[in-house]
Each structure stands twice: as C-alpha cells, then as structure tokens.
Amino acid sequence: MKQLKFGVIGCGEISAATCIGLAASPYTSIAMLMDTRAEALADLADLYSVPTTTDPDAVFTNPDVDAVYIATPHFLHVSLGIRAAKAGKHVLVEKPIATTLEDADKLIMACDKAGVKLGVAYYNQVDDGQRQAAELVRAGVLGDIISVRLNAAANKPASYWQGGYSQRVKADWRTSKAQAGGGILLMNVSHELNAVRFVTGLEVTRVYAESDTLATNIEVEDTIGVVMRYANGAIGVIQAGSAMHGGEYQTLGGPRIYGTKGQLILNPSGTLLKPMIYMSAPAEGSNPGEWKELFFVGKAADRQAIVEGFAKAVLNDQQPPCTGIDGYKALEIVLASYRSSELHQPINLPL
Q: Listing from the earlier edge strand, what are the strands of the sheet with 118-120?
C-alpha cells in the first residue's frame, strides 16, 4: 500500500498525539521530526526511530518527505505552510489555519499556486457520526434549523498556560495574543463552529460578542459570549470559558442543533461518543419523543482519522476532508466575534 510520508514540524503536545495516528495508519508514516527545542524531539525520536532536525529547511528539502504536518504556535502556521508549499510538499496544518484572514488567504493561495493539497486538522469532516448527522440534517429530518447552542465550560489549570495539559514541553505561547491569536473561542470552540457549519451547511452572517479575561493572568480571553445569526435566519449562541470551575456538571457536551422537527446533540470534537437525536414526529428508526444514539457505520474521529483522511485525499488526488476554505470560515467567525467585542457592536460576515 502506498503511504504519504510526513515531516512533522512542531513536536509539542498535539504532535505527540498526532504521531500516534501517523504511525498507526497504513496510509501514513513519519519521515522526519522537526522542532527548535531539542527536548521536544528526544522522546518522539526514540519512539519512532526517525531523523530529527531543528531546522525546518531540512524538512522542506528532504526528498523522503511528501507532506508536512504543522503543529507550531499558531502565528507560525502560515509562514511555514507557504515555505512547505513552495518546496512542493502537501500541507496539513493544525487549527487554526492562521491568526488573521489575510494570512489564511496567503496560505490558501500559495498551496493552490504550488499545486499541493492544503488541509486543516479539524475532526468533524472525518467523524462518521457527524457525517451521518450532516446527511440527516440536509435530508430535512430535523425540519428547518432554527437555533444552535455551543457551550464550552473548561477549567484549564494554571500549568496549562505554561506547557499544555501534558506538560511535555514548557512553552508560554498560549498566553500571548500575538502568538496564539485568541483564547477559548479560537483554541477550543472553533472545532464546534466547524462542526455546525459542516453538519448544517449554514453560514454565519452576523455576530455580537462580549469577551474578557476575568480569572486568568493571560492576554487572550478566558470568558466569552456570542450571539450569531445564520443565513437562513437561525440564531446561535456561544457560552465559553477556560476558567469555569466545576465544568459542565451533568450536561451532555457537544453542539446542539435545534430544528422544527427535532434536535441533534453532536459528539464533542475528538471524543468517541455518539451524536444523540430527538424527533418530535415519527421517523424511520426513531420513536417520537425519545432520545436515542445516532446509528452510523464507522467510528468517531481521532487523530488517526484526521491524518488518514488527508493522506487518502492526496494519494487519490481528491479534495481534503477539511479544506483551507473550511479553516478560513471557522476563523472568520472567531475573528468577527473578537472584533465585535472590541467595538461593542454587531459585525456582519463575510468580513
């Protein structure tokens, strides 16, 4: 079986998880690991027995590398992605695609000009449960979509901001607005914004937001509320925070999509839970007035599914499951929300 050979650029917390998927998939392999910090390379080099480097140019010029997976601090995604594209390497970039829409545009255009594939490492487009949910929504099973609710009540410990959850590598870039681009909305809720857009096909046309940093010594927001208007008239709300003690007690996580005939609760991105569905009218395989797990063939997405979906697209010369445009659209909602909060007024999309 032909494999897509990856150079991994940035070997922090999320890369360690993605490398497991790269090594496990029959469609992918790790050709080289790159990080500017030797301590971030040591354990992964021992685990996967591949060459390492502290120079990204060594990855771009390596003939054994077909594609790069970029998992650096957010502000470096675009410059590295453009260099990879110019070197003829396909680009799979961690979310967010960029920290500005102008930069996202530059990366999309660079990959297009170079004739390489560009993918963004969101879970939703390779999650079989959410793909089934999308088919049901677009077939009208929920009726007209009238409301969306996104809730992210995280309680990130102080150590998170200096080294992530795993503490494998010490780095404080997450605290910086310039380097991270944003807080809970960009880092976490963008997954769910991508999910709702993928499942419903609806675009956000206006947002009003209030955000602040109320409980954490960081530059990015730790608390935010957003009201969204969708193109079909539906109204969405976001409540999110990274310093919410107690989390979501006794509440099913995941985006909620409300229609005139029922409701969907999508599985939170990256979890193995199944979406839940409630129908108010009789439907095949569902009794009205009862919650049930959504039946689908396949599995919920993990890191292997993300890299495998991208690799299959490259190997078969197809569009990646989550494209640069998908990444751009999720980023646009986030940045419009930040602008709204700064100006204290509604912001229309597209920006």
A: 52-53, 28-34, 4-9, 67-70, 90-93, 118-120
**Of the candidates 236, 235, 194, 241, the residue with the CA atom closest to the CA atom of residue 222:** 241
CATH 3.30.360.10 intervals, the chain: 125-300+332-348
Q: What is the C-alpha to C-alpha distance for residues 316 and 327, in angstroms, rounded to an integer?
A: 22
Q: What pTM was computed for the model?
A: 0.96
Residues of the chain with CATH 3.40.50.720: 4-123+303-321
> Which of 72, 131, 76, 122 lies closest to 99, judged by CA?
76
Q: Return the structure tokens found at 97.
A: 């695609």
pLDDT tens profile 274-331? 999 999 987 766 678 899 999 888 888 999 999 999 999 999 999 999 999 999 999 9
How far apart CA 28 and CA 94 sit, in angstroms, is 17
CA distances from 33 to 9, 68, 113, 233, 260 (A): 6, 10, 26, 47, 50
Looking at domain 4-123+303-321, its CATH class is alpha beta
Instruction: List CB contacts of 222: < 8 A, sequence separation 6 or more.
Output: 183, 184, 212, 213, 214, 215, 216, 241, 242, 243
Which CATH code fits 125-300+332-348? 3.30.360.10
Residue with tokens 């999308």: 134
CB 248 within 8 A of CB 239: no
